[in-house]
Design a protein that fits this description.
Order of helices and strands: EHEHEEHEHEH
Distance between the termini: 22 Å
Structural class: alpha/beta
Radius of gyration: 16 Å
Shape: globular
Helix content: 25-40%
Strand content: 15-25%
Number of strands: 6
């Protein structure tokens, strides 16, 4: 089984990513279940705006799209900015919009029989709002969203420490992340055995 994690931090490598640190909890749990995990830090790739799969020369999205189609599990990881998903997370959903009209050999949307979940970080409130926005978009595209397929960490309202600056709340976020990975894996296994028919 394969998984793809799309880290939608606004920070380019090698700058540390708080979102990547929390996503790593989910990655480690998936790998403990023998899932092969690939990670893309979108800020390090050229992904121009658009709603098609391939925008031509210089567009890195087609390679990422191919990896999505090879994977049964997708994790979208995003920081919270102004109470919303990052602009990169929004761009990912816009580029994935093309998948609604892409079908497999049974005329099903290509995201069918794949599962998705969400990781959110931020030092302000709004994590549930961000989770619902991304989950809603992924559901429209055709992904199955298992129950409690999310984890988040935030410092509460107003400015404060980043995820990497404190241990506060990490235990809860990590436990929720491990549960998220278990739920994603369980539903992916179930869909592999009993796929949604064409």
């Amino acid at each position: 089984m394969r998984a793809v994690v799309l880290n939608c931090t606004l920070k380019k490598s090698p700058e540390p990513s708080n979102t990547g640190l929390l996503a790593q909890v989910v990655i480690d749990e998936l790998r403990s279940r023998q899932v092969e995990v690939s990670t893309f830090r979108l800020a390090d790739h050229s992904v121009p705006p658009g709603v098609v799969t391939d925008l031509g020369e210089g567009d890195d999205w087609p390679r990422i799209h191919d990896e999505l189609l090879r994977a049964e599990i997708l994790v979208v990881a995003t920081p919270t900015w102004v109470g919303r998903p990052s602009s990169i997370a929004q761009r990912v959903l816009e580029r994935m919009d093309a998948m609604i009209s892409e079908t497999d050999d049974q005329d099903r949307p290509v995201a069918y029989n794949r599962v998705a979940g969400v990781v959110v970080t931020g030092n302000e409130d709004g994590a549930h709002h961000v989770i619902s926005e991304i989950s809603g978009g992924l559901g429209d595209i055709g992904y199955t969203i298992p129950g409690q397929a999310w984890t988040y960490w935030n410092k509460g309202p107003g400015p404060g420490e980043d995820y990497s600056d404190t241990d506060e709340g990490h235990e809860w976020s990590a436990e929720t992340g491990r549960t998220m990975a278990a739920n994603l894996h369980a539903v992916a296994v179930a869909l592999a055995k009993n796929p949604i028919p064409g």
